[in-house]
Amino acid sequence: MTPASASLASTASVDALAACEGDLAWEADRSTDPTGLGLVDPRTQGIVPAAASRVPRWLQRLLGPVALIVAWQVLSMAEIFDARTTPGPATVLNTAFVMLGSGELQAHVLASLGRVLHGLAVGVALGVAGALVSGLTRWGENLIDANMEILHAVPNFAFLPVLIAWFGIGEEPKVALISLSVCIAVYINTYSAIRNVDASLVEAARTFGVGRRELITAVILPGALPGFLVGLRLALTAAWLALIFAETINAPAGLGRMMSDAREYFRVDVIFVLLGIYALLGLFSLALARFLEARLLSWRRAFDGA
Amino acid sequence: MALEQPDFGTVGGPLAVQALDVRKAFRDHAVLRDLSLEMRPSEFVALLGRSGSGKSTFLRVLGALDAEVEGHIRVPRRRAVVFQDPRLMPWLSVLRNVTLGLPQTQETRQRGLATLAEVGLHDRAQAWPRTLSGGEAQRVALARAMVREPQLLLLDEPFGALDALTRIRMHALLKDLYQRHRPAVLLVTHDVDEAILLADRVLVLTEGRISLSAPVEVPAPRSRSDPRFAALRRRLLSELGVDAD
Ligand SMILES: Nc1ncnc2c1ncn2[C@@H]1O[C@H](COP(=O)(O)OP(=O)(O)OP(=O)(O)O)[C@@H](O)[C@H]1O
Ligand SMILES: [Mg+2]
């Protein structure tokens, strides 16, 4: 809902409340309502979002974060915030540029990004493969699904010590932890999406002589795609979260390494830079997921009215 | 009482459907009780019955959607079903929905387009199903059924969700398609007028069997003002337990 329509909706509901208060409110309404019928303009009822304003949506949405940063800067300059525990945005930005200038930031971000991509690739592949096998076959379901559910029930990060015992303290346990989180998120959502494909569509397809192969490629997989994409979006979030835990294991490079160094030397400004980086990477991941949804689910657009 | 009556649903000669003593129960609720029905090739039969009388259940049996049933049942290999809702795959184009289940060749594509042209939707072949109106979607469902040249076309209240005007158009379209392809048709409907307008024979399903089988002897073009139309209408309504006028 746009800010404008939100406020209209809330005044509309206030109107509705007022109208409930009986004759007094009714009389008051009449003064602004020449019909005297207590009629309302349907466009103010807030069910349908108001028409888009000329300012692009993303720019409108930027208002909140910008306001927050400005307030933060003002409070810092007024020395209401202690510079040692909460450096202002200008200081943080300055630190970021220094780190970029030395190439230090890029190197660490790339190291972390590499781990996440590696973990995503492995986790998505395993999650999708598992979901296909257990979603499409009875034996696969018997074999895999209960195990995945048990895995899902254990907090992923509890596996870290085991992963270290198996893989040592190199890259492998880090990637394995990320893969595990991703795999579970993708599996759970894709499997249930496959199992929940509209049975009436499957039945209709069967009556038209659709064979097993076409049933899977033309009905079940496209029907399960929205669920898979939900899983992928959750997996992206899970991957960054897993990264933080993974990089608590001895890491020569990466955001986690920078974070622990910054903590050691009490570089609060660096910590804020890193928080900003995590935010950007997370937002970028979600944008990527949204992009994929828009591309792959174009058939849904007619329905969503977008 | 319907149960003591002879079987009204049987005919002689070559058959498109033969169902003898069909029995179907959901747990202890007997829905079809020794139902018998025979249909000739290219015969257009309408099946009426109160809500819950088992029309859909029987149609699903003929459409091979329900195998847990007793009795002797024979249907052609090439069948098609149209449901009350269009049941189009929202992620496939209109054309791809029509050619579902057929070998994907250039020839199939052409046939799909030709059938879409028959239902007047040639120009929507590449559209997503969700951009279609209810009537258009149901026309696509009809095209999807007709494209495979069925020997038996099963229609379960295909126009039930449509408005009266669209329904009239769909009647004309169905008549047209029927005359062109001449499948045997079993049309389940609530609408007595629809049954008389379209069918060669109208059946009433009561208490699990065919309690009435009436040939429609109203000459074309069938009109509601024809006294024979009105007489049959009255007869069917009274069989359905509704008193006309
Ligand atoms: N899957 C099922 N499980 C249990 N009972 C069922 C099932 N399907 C149908 N029935 C019951 O069988 C009876 C006949 O149902 P059916 O859908 O065939 O009726 P119908 O004649 O098509 O009715 P309508 O005109 O309302 O569509 C109903 O009493 C219904 O409750
Ligand atoms: Mg029914």
What order do the helices and strands come in, and which of them pair?
The complex is a heterodimer of chains A (306) and B (245).
Chain A: H1 3-20, H2 23-32, H3 57-77, H4 89-101, H5 104-136, H6 138-153, H7 160-167, H8 171-195, H9 199-207, H10 212-246, H11 255-264, H12 268-296, H13 301-304
Helix pairs in contact in A: 4-12, 5-6, 5-8, 5-10, 5-11, 6-8, 7-8, 8-10, 10-12, 11-12
Chain B: E1 17-26, E2 29-39, E3 44-49, H1 55-62, E4 70-74, E5 79-82, H2 94-98, H3 106-118, H4 134-146, E6 152-156, H5 164-181, E7 184-188, H6 192-198, E8 201-206, E9 209-215, H7 227-239
Parallel strand pairs in B: 3-7, 3-8, 5-6, 6-7
Antiparallel strand pairs in B: 1-2, 1-4, 8-9
Magnesium ion binds at residues 55-56, 156 of chain B.
Q: What percent of residues of chain B are in strands? A: 15-25%
Total strands of chain B: 9
Distance between the termini of chain A: 13 Å
Structural Rg of chain B: 18 Å
Strand count, sense and barrel status of the largest sheet of chain B are: 6 strands, mixed
CATH class of the largest domain in chain A: Mainly Alpha
Give the topology string of chain B: H per helix, E per strand: EEEHEEHHHEHEHEEH
Radius of gyration of chain A: 26 Å
CATH homology group of the largest domain in chain A: MetI-like
- Structural class by SSE content of chain B: alpha/beta
Mean pLDDT of chain A: 85
Low-confidence stretches of chain A: 1-12, 18-26
Query: What compounds are bound to the protein?
Result: adenosine-5'-triphosphate, magnesium ion
* CATH topology-level name of the largest domain in chain A: MetI-like fold
Tally the helices of chain B.
Answer: 7
Average the pLDDT over all residues of chain B and give the rounded result: 90
Judged by helices, strands and strand pairing, the structural class of chain A is: mainly alpha
Summed up, the helix count of chain A is: 13
CATH architecture of the largest domain in chain A: Orthogonal Bundle
Would you tell me which CATH topology of chain B applies? Rossmann fold
Got a strand count of chain A?
Answer: 0
